[in-house]
Amino acid sequence: MSKQIVYTEQAPAAIGPYSQAVKVNVASPSNMLFVSGQIALDLAPLGDIQAETQKVMENIGAILKAANLDYTNVVKASIFVKDMNNFALINEVYGRFFTSEPPARETVEVARLPKDVNVEISVIAIQ
């Protein structure tokens, strides 16, 4: 896989650990991994958004590893959060996993998440 970070001054710059866009050259669709939304299911009590985000990112890392991939292979992330006021705290933890060439991403505030968690993250990775 070749991965190129795309940036233009004609669109808003990233305001966190993500890229405006990521262009990939995929030899085969079988080189793509779609990771379902991960939550901190086994973390109790819920409420510490940074602990929840850490657990979610660890879950994603375990799934990537099972597919012989790692965080550098992630090209797209989707973050769903119950309270956008937690955006900076989530970003702080999330950013530790993408220290260079972060994936494209969106963050969306939602009314409710499964099991009443506070954050859910899904990713797409390319080999």
Automatic annotation (TrEMBL):
The molecular function GO annotations come to: deaminase activity
Q: Which family does it belong to?
A: Belongs to the RutC family.
The organism encoding this protein is Spirosoma endophyticum
The family database entries (Gene3D superfamilies) matched by this protein are listed as: RutC-like
Protein name in the entry: 2-iminobutanoate/2-iminopropanoate deaminase
Any single Pfam family the record assigns to this protein: Ribonuc_L-PSP
Could you tell me which InterPro entries the record lists for this protein?
RidA, RutC-like_sf, YjgF/YER057c/UK114
UniProt cross-references to PANTHER family, sorted A to Z: 2-IMINOBUTANOATE/2-IMINOPROPANOATE DEAMINASE RIDA (PTHR11803), 2-IMINOBUTANOATE_2-IMINOPROPANOATE DEAMINASE (PTHR11803:SF39)
Looking at the record's lineage, which domain of life comes first?
Answer: Bacteria
GO terms for cellular component: cytosol
